[in-house]
Amino acid sequence: MDRRTWLGSVAALGVLALAAPLRVLAAVWNRQAFESQDVGGALHGLGIEQAGPTCDIVLVAPDMAENGAIVQVEVESHIPGTEAIAILVEKNPTPLIANFMFSNGAEPYVVTRIKMAETSELKAIVKAGGQYFSVSKKVEVALGGCG
């Protein structure tokens, strides 16, 4: 085996080693839920049949967003054993914005910036103990951010 062949083989193995973790992450991605074009399809993709209202979820978002391209959203769950927090925007082209998973001991609190296409209902859904709970808030958008 000459030096060029050996270097080519090592380079190819290096590329494969770097690409393997990306395939693992892609396998975890819930394509059906994130690519759904309506809230019902997104909820179905997440395996959510029903989410009951609760006062144990704090959803902080502006009443009026001047620019839908940057809307800060804060969600905190006070429900013991919170496993996940999903954020949905009803009138977005793809309503499921994010689905955060929490392992044991992680504080169920997220702050993120999202895009909103137009004035819409913003919804946070929390999974805890195999049950789903939700809270929502209407956010007025002056200038749409999806488009």
Note the topology:
Blueprint: H1 3-28, H2 31-35, H3 39-46, E1 52-53, E2 57-60, E3 64-65, E4 71-77, E5 82-89, E6 96-101, E7 109-114, E8 120-128, E9 131-141
Parallel strand pairs: 1-9, 3-9
Antiparallel strand pairs: 2-4, 4-7, 5-6, 5-8, 8-9
Describe this structure as you would to a colleague:
The chain has helices at residues 3-28, 31-35, 39-46; strands at 52-53, 57-60, 64-65, 71-77, 82-89, 96-101, 109-114, 120-128, 131-141. With 147 residues, it is an alpha+beta fold. The chain has a single domain, classed as Sandwich (Immunoglobulin-like). The protein is extended, with a radius of gyration of 20 Å. The N and C termini lie far apart (55 Å).
